[in-house]
Amino acid sequence: MLTLIQTRNYRLVAIRGLYNFIALQEPVLMEHCSRITAIPSKRQNAIPEISYLEKTEVEAMLRATDRNTSLGRRE
User: Fold this and answer.
1) For 9, 21, 27, 73, which has the most beta carbons within 10 A of its beta carbon?
2) What pLDDT does 48 receive?
3) How is the chain split into domains, by residue range?
């Protein structure tokens, strides 16, 4: 799943590409376009650690369901 920071950066790349194209087509707008393309990307923190359930937590989840019913077997 994309984070909000990744989504923002992907959109910023698209905007930069558009304004680079505009600057090439209309040199009069180059200064304005260069200010827009200078917007920095947002930095993302380190990749979060993947966490797993402990054995006791898994056993507690399995004990919490009634496996004699169809809903319990599904859970």
Assistant:
1) 9
2) 66
3) 1-43
